[in-house]
Amino acid sequence: MDREANSFGDRLRWWRDRRGLSQLALAGAAETTQRHLSFLESGRTAPSRTMVLRLAGALDLPLRQQNALLLAAGFAPAWRERDLAAPELAQVNRALQFILDQQEPYPAFVVDRRWHLLRANAGARRFVEFLLGPAPPPVPGAPPPNLAEALLAPNALRPFIVNWEDTARFFLRGVQADAAADGTAETAALLARLLAYPGLPALYEALPPGDAKAPVLAIDFRKGESSFRLFTTIATLGTPLDVTLQEIRVECFFPADEASAALLRAWAARG
Q1: What pLDDT shows up at residue 219?
Q2: Which domains, ranges and CATH numbers included, belong to the chain?
Q3: Range 36-43, long-range pairs (CB < 8 A, 24+ positions)
Q4: How far apart are CA 203 and CA 231, in angstroms?
Q5: C-alpha–C-alpha distance, residues 207 and 70, integer Å
């Protein structure tokens, strides 16, 4: 939330406007009255903790933003935010590793909500190394690589993507949807950084005519004499009760044709 509203009423009104809801519509969804909601937004009435959570649910706020709304109302956060390496998340870590392992020999990445790389399988490392060369040694304290910037930056993956404009357009719209959903300055800043790269198509540009032969947009990669086509799926945890876990995504790449599958399998066989 840029325009950082500090009071509960300001935050509530900001989110209601962002969701395109009238006071009457939000009041009905939260099982309260329009008069009571008006008093909450103006600060004439203080909300109960239960009411804050009901309003947050009606607004479909992410857990991080539910915590912010509770804090603004004077209550403790309802949802914890733990490091992914925390012992309490061991079961989730095993599940994530299982997904990465099962995706072999095809690439898979675990990222956070803003596309920072958290983990990758061997297939992902082979894929990136083929296109960009060996990864440089990690710098202590440096932020993790950002897959969104790697995809759209002119000095990263962009030169190897044949259908880059179509790929960039779809990806940017996904980041735009993220920014609208979470309302944070950080996601808005990521979107702004991506749009600042040269040659990016405008977000309002019309999608290509619906004459594509494939049911999904495949990314066409080419380097030298090698070419392959991949499409992606995004998986999230279904019932997260932790801010970190809600924001985790697993992006899996699948070959769009048998030639691409054979190439990925050949890389794996060579080790």
Answers
A1: 95
A2: 8-72 (1.10.260.40), 87-269 (3.30.450)
A3: 40/8, 40/9, 40/12, 41/9, 41/12, 41/13, 41/16, 42/9, 43/7, 43/8, 43/9
A4: 21
A5: 40
Q: What are the pLDDT digits (tens) for 162-206?
A: 999 889 888 888 898 888 888 888 999 999 999 888 888 665 465
Amino acid at position 187, single letter: T
For residue 162, the 8-state DSSP code is: T
Q: Name every residue whose Cβ is closer than 8 Å to that of residue 154 and which is 6 or more positions away in sequence.
A: 197, 198, 199
266 pLDDT more than 90: yes
Bridge partners (DSSP) of residue 35 are none
What is the three-class DSSP state of 195? helix
Q: Which are the contacts of 210, defined by CB distance < 8 A and separation ≥ 6? A: none
> For the whole model, what pTM was predicted?
0.86
Eight-state DSSP code of residue 144: P
Task: Quote the tokens at residue 71.
Answer: 């804090």
Alpha helices in the chain (DSSP H): 8-18, 23-29, 34-42, 49-58, 63-72, 90-103, 122-132, 147-152, 164-182, 185-195, 243-246, 258-269
